[in-house]
Structures are given as structure tokens and as C-alpha cells.
Design a protein that fits this description.
mainly alpha
């Protein structure tokens, strides 16, 4: 049975990743990790005797996150072309993209704010720390939407028929120790279609 809104193929599998293996989820780990670490460094800079190394580290982690976010955004934008317009998945994808662009702009602004202050010389000031925390919270909301795109709507992941291959037993696994055949169904048995 075909769905009236069949997923489209990406603009370029070489750039966005092959069907079932998109590059966007791999690339988002760079900004998420860098920005999470920058927030930890910002907070830690308020509690140590010599905070300059933490402040400087946070600033460069923010820069690394911005660079990683731009790379993730490029392939994410290509993934957007694979989502049929006028669908709930497309609306969620647009919100996900908008929030990510706002977060990236906030972190770029945070980096420039820190640079304008002649670089880190002590613990991170309250303003850049607060901006880091708010931007990271918005990133969490956007990440939840990205998860919804993948896990709820199946954007750029394998279709159910292809996914079922992962639950099929190999011939060696089809018999238990008593020689009785195993079921080919998913773990726990039952019908997955409901």
C-alpha cells in the first residue's frame, strides 16, 4: 500500500547520506557535545580559583559548536527536501530548522560577546552564562523535535519492510537448544502492525 505522501529521496545521497543512513544525525553530535561542554565549563568557571582556562575553553567550544552546527545544518537542509510539503513532518522539520538557526545565532553572538570583552580573563560573566543556558535549553527542544522527525515520522530512516529485516533470525538462530525452530517475529512476539 502506498501512502499519499511518500517520502522523497534526498537531493544528493552523496551529500545527505544514503537512505537509512543520513549524515545529519551524526553531525549534530558535534554542536550538541561542544555546547553541552561549554555550559559545564561556564558553570565550573564560577567555582574554581583560576577560572581562565575554563572560560577560554568554553569560548572555543562555543566556536567549535557553531562550525559543527553549520555543517549539520547544510545536510539537514538537504534532508528537508526529502520531506513532502504540507505534512505534519514538514511543519515539525521547519520548526526544528528555525530553532536550530536561532540557537546557532545565539551561540555565535555569545562567542562574539566574549571576544568583545577582550577574551576570557576570569570566570564567565552572568550574561554570557545565561545566554549559554537559555540557548542550550532551546537546543533541547529542537533536539526533541528532531527525534520526533526520526522516531515518530521516520524521516530519512528505512521503511517498515526494510526495518523488519533487522528482526529476522538467521538460519543458525532458528533452532533452540532442543532443535525446535524459533519464531521469525519481533522480540516479544505479536503483530507489530497495530
Amino acid at each position: 500500500m502506498t501512502h499519499p505522501h511518500q517520502a522523497k529521496q534526498p537531493v544528493s545521497a552523496a551529500l545527505a547520506g544514503p537512505y537509512g543512513h543520513p549524515f545529519h544525525p551524526m553531525l549534530v553530535t558535534v554542536p550538541i557535545g561542544a555546547w553541552a561542554a561549554s555550559l559545564v565549563f561556564d558553570i565550573a568557571s564560577r567555582f574554581v580559583g583560576d577560572p581562565e582556562f575554563l572560560s577560554r575553553g568554553a569560548m572555543w567550544l562555543i566556536a567549535l559548536g557553531v562550525i559543527g552546527a553549520l555543517a549539520a545544518a547544510m545536510v539537514g537542509f538537504l534532508d528537508l527536501f526529502a520531506v513532502p510539503t504540507g505534512t505534519p513532518a514538514f511543519r515539525v522539520a521547519l520548526l526544528h530548522m528555525t530553532l536550530n538557526l536561532l540557537v546557532t545565532a545565539a551561540y555565535l553572538g555569545n562567542f562574539l560577546w566574549r571576544q568583545a570583552g577582550a577574551g576570557p580573563s576570569g570566570s564567565v560573566a552572568a550574561g554570557p552564562l545565561a545566554l549559554n543556558a537559555v540557548a542550550f535549553a532551546v537546543l533541547g527542544v529542537s533536539g526533541w523535535l528532531g527525534g520526533k522527525l526520526s522516531y515518530r515520522y521516520g524521516v530519512r530512516v528505512a521503511d517498515e519492510a526494510t526495518q523488519a529485516e533487522g528482526f529476522a533470525s538467521s538460519p543458525a538462530d532458528q533452532a533452540d537448544s532442543a532443535g525446535r525452530p524459533h519464531s521469525d517475529g519481533p522480540p516479544g512476539g505479536g503483530d507489530r502492525s497495530s
